[in-house]
Structure formats: structure tokens, C-alpha cells
Amino acid sequence: MLQTSLLSPINNLFYHHLEIRMVATSSTQWEAWSGAILRNNLLKAANQVIVNDKVNLLELIDHFPLTEIHPMYKELKEGFPKGYVIALPEEYLVAHSELSPKIFGQKKRTILENTQEGLYLKEGEIFKFSLFLIGNMSSYYQHFIHAIQLMCQQGMGHPQVPFSLIDICEKSYDGKLHLLTTGNNDQIKSLIYPIIFSDYQSFSENKHKTRIEITFLTPVVLFKQTMRKNPTLSYQDKSNGFPSFYQLVRSAVARILKLTMLYISPEKTDIDELSLAYFEDWINYATHASLVLVDMYKTTLKNTSKKESANKMPLSGYIGKQIYEGYFNQFLPMLKFMEALGVGNETVYGLGRYLIKTDN
């Protein structure tokens, strides 16, 4: 069982879940992965939302909160996880026609598959997505809402058409909805549903051997595989790039620790309890999980072009389903908490999303 003392450094992390509904005013086509379209247009709008006289929202998003005396300053400075995540609803993602119908049920097309040839939105069609604001970043939620309103007004797609914003709600961990605003209304209600680690402690109650089902909803890359031949390869290198249960646990812990450092206590420089080494023995226990079934494949989603370049960096990773058997009560609260925030690369685009189900 996870020791109480281990919980304390990660128990402070929280996030808020905003659920957005908008409708296309005319027919249009998104010629790339929907998460990339939303992310890029949201940041474009954020650059126009002024937070105070000197700073706009985009500058706040890109601001690195650690000082030079912080032990992780050099490691994270050049590339740190942002304090927000864009995600598509599960119902857009859970069925995959290229996978076994025995596992995924009836075959049907999804946004993920439509991305290969472009997502076509009809006039009047409602589109939903989620925005997760992590820790201190949630204090700017009203500015994020203004950026969403502006994004809808400016339009997206080919042709570029405006979207009518229906509403933005805050969603609790157990599905309760709290209306924040509608349309372009400047009046925005307060956030009331922080989602915290302890919300998922009930998942630690089953101490018996059980099975869990992990569905990678969007492409996930948990580590870069070592290319050279090396007789001392690590456990994760020997996995040949496959997202094992061990690597999922390790990546989730690493992400939760970085997010805590950046968006909960950036001023704290005594970070022994916020290091992977502190959790190493606990993480290593994840290697005991037995793989029962796997139905996965590697896929690539279309990305949008980078600024001042026609090059489109691919969004690649594994997608599909795994079933493991073992004792998971010590891992499930943390893994369930991190479902929304994702793991691995490009989480701001909605990649690295997973869903865990237990057999009880």
C-alpha cells in the first residue's frame, strides 16, 4: 500500500475542468487533428487577451515560474509542461474501427479516424471540447474564457467560419455541471469544483488481485526508445517503445511532480519529496503487473504548420487497449486522477489521454 508520507507531496495538485460547447455557423473543414486546431487558435486568441497593463494571457501561459536557484531550473527551462490541457470528449474517441470489434464493440468512425482525411463540420453541428486548468493557472480562468469567446468569433477551419459559443460549464470529478457563462457574456461565475488527488482515494480500497483495462484514447509516447545497441538497456528500453504499465506509472508520477513544482509551489527549492528517486521503489513495483491482452497500433495524426514554416510535425504514438492482472490498489488513485491531464508528449494537443476501468 502507498505510504501516507508518500502522498503528501502530490496531494496538493489540483485542476479545474471546463467543458465548452460551440456550434458551427457555416460548414467548414478542419484539415488537421482537432486538438491541434483548437490549441493553436486558442493561443492566437490568448495573445490578444490582456491580463494587466503589461502582460497578455499567452505570455502568462509561456512564463516559466521557477527561479534560477531552483534545482530543476536548468532541466525544465527549455521545455516545461504547460498549465493547461485541451481534450476531446471520450465519446469522440472510444471506438476505433481498425481495432478488434470484439474489444471495442461495433465499428464506427471517430474524430481520430476522420483526422486522416480532415474533420468536416456541418452548419449547426455542435462541437464539444474540454479545457483543464492546472493549479495556479486556474486563477486566470476568466481570461481563458475570454480567449475561447474570441477564438469562436474569429473563426476556424477552411473556409474560416465563426462558431457560436453555446456555454462553458465547470465539471466536477463526479460529473456535476456548474454553468460559468453563455455565449459572449462578460459575466462569469466563480469556480467551485477543484479536482484533487483525494477525490480518487476510494480506488485504493480493493486490495485483492484484479484486472484493469487501459484504453489509450489518443496517441501516447511515454519515452524515446534508445536507438543504439546497449547490453545494459533499462527496463523501459527493453519494452521496444511499447507503453507498459510500468512506464505509464513512471510517466504519470513524473508529470504530476513537475506540475506540482511549476503550478503549486514554484517557490519551494527543497524538492527531495518531489523527485522520481523518492518514489523509485514504489514505481518499480509496477513491473509486477502481468499483461493479459493487448490490441494496439501506432498511428500518426496530422498537425498544423509551425509559424513561418510549411513543415507539419507529426503527432505520433500508440493507441488501443491493454488488460493487466495484478494488485493495483496503490496505483489506481494516482492514475485515475491523471486520466484528464494525460501522460507523455504533446498533452496540450490532447495526446496521451487514457481511460482505466476495473473489473469490479
Description:
- A hairpin with a 5-residue loop joins β6 and β7.
- It is built from ten helices and twelve strands.
- The strands form three sheets. Strands 1, 3, 5, 6, 7 and 8 form a six-stranded antiparallel beta sheet that branches. A four-stranded antiparallel beta sheet has the order 10-11-9-12, with no helix packed on it.
- The N terminus is likely disordered.
- The two termini are 19 Å apart.
- α2 packs across α7 and α8 runs antiparallel to α9.
- The protein is globular, with a radius of gyration of 20 Å.
- The chain is an alpha+beta fold.
Number of helices: 10
User: What composes the largest sheet?
Assistant: 6 strands, antiparallel
Can you tell me the residue ranges where pLDDT is under 50 for at least 5 consecutive residues? 1-5, 95-109
Q: What distance separates the N and C termini?
A: 19 Å
Q: What is the β-strand count? A: 12
